[in-house]
Amino acid sequence: MIRNPLKFIMPLAIFCAAIAAWEIYVRTAAVPAYILPAPSLIATTMIADWPLLAASLLVTLKTTLTALVLAVIGGVGLACILSLSRIVEYSLYPFAVVLQVTPIIAIAPLLLIYMPQDAAVLTCAWLVAFFPILSNTMLGLQSIDRNLLELFRLYGVPSDPSRMSRLKAQVKALWHLRRPSVLPAFLTGLRIAGGLSLIGAVVAEMAAGSAGAGSGLAYRIIESQYRLNIPRLFAALVLLAITGVTLFLILSLLTRFLLRHWHESALPQDA
Amino acid sequence: MNASTLVSLKQVSKVFANGVAALDCFDLDIREGDFLSLLGPSGCGKSTVLRLIAGLADPTSGSITWPSSLAKDHRSEIGFVFQDPTLMPWANVADNVWLPLRLRGVSRHEAKDRIAESLALVGLQDFAKAYPRELSGGMRMRVSIARALSVKPRLLLMDEPFAALDEITRFRLNDDLLKLQHDLGCTIVFVTHSVYESAYLSTRIAILSPRPSRVLTQIEGISSAERGADFRTSLAYADLCRHVSQRLTSTLKDERL
Hints:
heterodimer; A: mainly alpha; MetI-like fold; 10 helices; globular; B: Rossmann fold
C-alpha cells in the first residue's frame, strides 16, 4: 500500500529539523527555561515527572474515551429516534442545535455547580462530542437509497399483517439496510467527535481547575503555568498532542477497515 | 396463444396524494408466458403499473387479480428489476443475490445453490466475490436480474432496466433476457420507451397514452418460433418496428401531449 517512501520520510525529516532548530536556538541564544525550554529539557522533564504526568494522562484519557463512548450511544440512539418521525425530529432537533452552538466553556461553570466535578467534566466532553455523531448519523439515515427501501418492502414484508411480523421486518431492514448504509456518515461523525471529546475534556478540566490526585493533563498545564514550571507545561502539552494524534489515527484506521471493500473514501487513490 | 391469464388489471385508476392522476380506467391482461412490453412516452405512468402489480402501491379504484391463484399475497412470485441496478454497495455480488432469500429467512448455506444457479443464468458465476463498484454497468444490471431470479419468480417485472446502458451492452442483454425467458418459462412485463427494444423482445406490445395512462392499443409481436437467425437485421423486424412506430404516432396524435 505504501508506494512512495518519500511520503513518510519527508514529514519526518522536516519534523526532526524543526526540533533540532529549536534546540540550537535555545542553546545559542541562551533562552531561559521558564520562557522556552529546549526539547531535550522537555524530554528529561517528561521522564522525571512521569509518575505525575502518567496519572494525569490516565485521567484525561478516561474522560475522553468515556465521553466518546457515551456520545456514540447517545448520538446514534437519538438519531434513530429522530429518524422515526418528522414530528419528533422537529420538536427535539432544535435542542440539540442549541446545545451545540453554545460555547461549552460557558456551560461548564453551571455544570460544576450542579454536579460533582468528575461528572461535570465528563458531561462537558460528552456535550461537545455528541453533536457531530448525531448530525452525521441523521444525514446518513435520511439519504438511504429509495429503491433499496422499495426492494426491502417487496421482499421483506411478510404476507401476514400481524404486528409482530411487521416489527420483525422493520428490524431486518434496520440491520441489513440502514446499518451498513449509515456507516460512512457515522464514521465521519466519529472521527470529528474523537478530536472534540479530547478538546471538551481539556476545556472542562480547565474550567473545573481544582487540585487533587484525580486531576487531568489540562489541570497540570494550569498548575505548571502558576508555578512557572514551563518544562512540565510543555511535557503535558506534548502528551495531549500525542493523545489527539493517536485517537485520530485509530479512528481513521477503523474507518478504513470497515469501509475497505466498498466505499470510495477508503479505496487506494490510484485504483 | 390461448395461455391462461396470470394477472388481470380491470378499470384500475391511481391518483397520487398530490392529486396527479397516473392511471385512468387501465385494462390489461397479462397472460402466462407473455413477454409484454409497456411502451409509452416518459412520465406516462408505466412504472406505476409495475408498482401496482408488485403490490408496492394500491390502486385508487379498480381491481388487480390473479385468476389462476388463490393466494392473497403474490409478492413471493414476483421478481422486480429497477431502472438502476440498486445493488447494496457494501455487499459482494453473491450477498446481493442472496438478499431476497435472506429477507425470507433462508440461510446463506441453504441459499448457496440458488445463488450459484442465478449467477450462472446471467453468466456471472466467476464474479460472486466481486463488489458492485468493481463491475461495469452491464454486469451490475446482470446482478440485479440474478437477484430477481433468485426467488424463481413466475412474473418478472422490469422497469426500463437497460435504459442507462450503451447500445452494445443493451443488445447483448436483450438476447440474454430472451434466452432466460425461454429457459425459465416465466412471464415478463417490461417497461420501455424504445420502439426498437419493445419490438425486438416482445410477444405483445401495449402502447400507453400520456398521463392519465391507459392502454391505447395492443400489437402482437413476432414469437421466437417465427424468428430467423438474424432477427435484429431481418426485414420482419424492420416491418414490425415501422408498424409499432406508426401505431404509436397515430394513436398519440389524437392525444393531447
